[in-house]
Amino acid sequence: MPKRTFITEEETLLPGHNPMKDSLILLFCAIASGDLKIKLLLVYHSENPRAFKKHKVNKGQLSVLWQSNPKAWVTRLLFVKWVNAVFGPAVKKYLVDNNLPLKAMLLVDNAPAHPPGLEEDLLEDFNFIKVMFLPSNTTPLLQPMDQQVISNFKKTLHK
Fold this sequence. Notes:
The protein is α/β, with parallel strands linked by helices. It has helices spanning 9-13, 50-55, 76-97, 139-142, 144-147, 149-157; strands at residues 24-27, 40-44, 64-68, 104-108, 129-133. It has one domain (9-157).
C-alpha cells in the first residue's frame, strides 16, 4: 500500500469529495545487457478514458501497449498478448540485427498472469523463447526489475 496519497488541487477544494481511487498496472521488461527498451504493458480499467477522447489520443502511438481490464489487473490473456505482440517481435529483431543466435529466456515471477505452460501460448515465430519462473517466495529478493528499474521509475514520478 502507498505510504501517502496524491490528490489534485481541485479535489482538495471540493468539500466532502473523496480523492480519486484510480489505479493502473505497468509491466516492466528489460534484457540483461540493458541496450534494448521493450514497450511496457499498461493495464487500466477503461479501454477509452475521457481524457483520450477529449484530446484525441491514438493509443497505437503511445510508448506502452494499452490494455484494459475492469479491475486493472494483468490477466493471462493480456500477458500472452503482450508477449506475442511486443516482447517476441522486439527480441527477435534485436537478435537478428545483432547477428545473435535465436535464443531467449523470459524470466517471470509466479504471478497469476504467468501460469505454467506459457510457452504453449506463444506464436510459432517465438518458439525460441524459453520461459523460466523464479522460485516461489523469492520474488522480492531475486526479481531483477525490483532491484533498480521499478524503484528508479517510481522516483521519477515523485519529482
